[in-house]
Sequence to fold (457 residues):
Amino acid sequence: MITDNVFLTISYPQSTKNMITDNNKKLAQWAMDYALKNGCQAVKLALYSNSNASFELRDGKMDRLQQASESGLSISLYVDGKYGSYSTNRLDKKELESFIKNGIDSTRYLAVDEARILPDTSRYYKGGKPDLQLFDERFETINPDDKVAVARAAAEEVLGKDNRVISVSTSYGDGENSSYRLTSNGFEGESKSTWFSVSADVALRGEGEARPSSYWYDSALFYDKLVKSGIGATALERALRKLGQKKVASGKYTMVVDSVNSSSLLRPMLSALYGSALQQKNSFLLDKLNAKVGGGLLNLMDEPHIIGARGARYFDSEGVATEPRPIFEDGVLKTYFIDTYNSRKMGVEPTVGSPSLLVLKPGNKDLNGLVADVRKGILVTGFNGGNCNSSSGDFSYGIEGFLIENGKPTRPISEMNVTGNMITLWASLSAVGNDPRLSSSWRIPSLVFEDVDFSGL
Fold:
């Protein structure tokens, strides 16, 4: 049994079974009809229900337990060319009447926005495809003691293993999410998923005042697929490798980025593709469609229909059907992510509001194989602050990692910066690993870039 002190947080408690019931759906359909009868020309509605729990241990002892659940309704009202969006967690029919009427009255005070319309009905997901298998039916039956045991086992892999360990924090978390969406011009869609995670964070006593630390984690959509052993041991190993971190000389190096951190370099490229950034002319990839913006190894796909994969979905938040699409092909930009609103503002055809499941075409070597090919370089195992200018693509990030000499990682390094421009950086992509984290919706392997500027000594 759980006997340690805990902190318990519960909001909007409800049964987690059948999170969105048929009665909930009928209430959502009633709310849409009510809005249409009281002054709306169009309505978009989402009913949502979520629950999550986390068990956090410090040095193997329970430190915090949190449990929460919430449900609510968000509704977008289109009134006389004006648009307003509102949400509530009070799902009583009488209260919804007042809520919707007040929303309609409030929307009438807003300015006309002709770009605010629902998607064309031909673009909606029509159903009929196989279950994406994102929901673990065992979710409710997992014993809390078993959840705590997962976090405690991660801690026991660290405690007593090295006298330089100052503390170890471990956690287990899980949750389920469900939503039901309706639009007044014909879309109806439902989705649900579960998630499970375990993590460990280890802090060490280093030289002088140095306190190197590192972490490791795993996550999965199904409890039985969650890696439950080796998490603490890996976090300890990663922390021990940081002992003695120092700067090295400034200069141009081959940069190898491990698969835990490679997504951080891709994120600015993706952000630059969103309709909101393009419409505001706040994107360094504006007017770059069908232009070469990266090296030939930059082959990125949006693959939304992979069964059992995090991020998989058949429709976006508008109800628009997703489909596999190339984003970068041999370094050439092939698509933007433009929702209905921004397509109207820009006068271009819409695509989809956001990517679902990103897959970068892998190479044939793991991280060790990539490092072995580098004579002089830096292996980046963490980014520590910094930013990328969304208009120019210029970036500067703090990094930590290891100096690579003659194909081997040697000295641990920290307190260095990597600088450059995103387009220039991705043009220098020279190798891609075969080690994406398949538990992520961003399946980005380890990456190698040539002649990258580092600032140190």
